[in-house]
Input
Amino acid sequence: MKIVFTNKIYFSILFFIFLSLDIYVKLNLEAVPYRLITKPLIVLSLLYFFIVNNSKTQEKWHYIIVALLSFLIGDILLIFYKIIPIYILGLILLMIGKLCYAKCFSNERDFNVFKLLPFFILCFAYMVFIMVLVLNKLGAFFFPTLLYLFSCLIVMLFAYLRKGDVNKRSYYTVLIGVTFAILCDSISVIQSFYYEEFPYQKFLIMLFYGLSQYFIIMGLVEEKSKEKSKAIKRDVILS
Output
């Protein structure tokens, strides 16, 4: 079985089988008990894939483990979304997962504020646009929603700032994953507080969520520090 998780093609096939199964269950069967089985398979498979392929060489690997565990428990709690305290706790765990991802994406290098400003304005405008749409129906969910969207903004910014510090494949794969996460969260918030009849919302939310987690983890597994890569090449030449 381990060979499935060490081969990216085999794992990808298995992952999308799990994702398709969960989407089918979400669209056609009762959440309890069926999604208590199918939904965790998505994150659990990514968690094991990361552990097998990482071997603790990724400097911030422990944040990735905490992120995936937070998403795993949060996903299970959100199945019981009709129970408000459990729903809020699930959102908090998802925010913790996002912030752990942001920590993984962060680096110690100084960055050009003016170069970042246009991207920051774009992300901030997105957050304001979503908040304006749903503001009248948020009620007691105003601050949880604001914090959740802010965590999305932080993840996007730190993912963007990885440019130049990691290899291109890792950078763009993670950025694709974060973009899918933004789409998933946008549809989820809009459907919950603005337009309940959003077309294909159940399918799209789960599809984009699964794709976001898949591409983020794949990108992190591919991550190689540019400085380390240069050092290795230099050592090879000198030897």
Notes: The chain is about 80% helix and 0% strand. Residues 229-239 have pLDDT under 50 and may be disordered. The two ends are 39 Å apart (CA to CA).
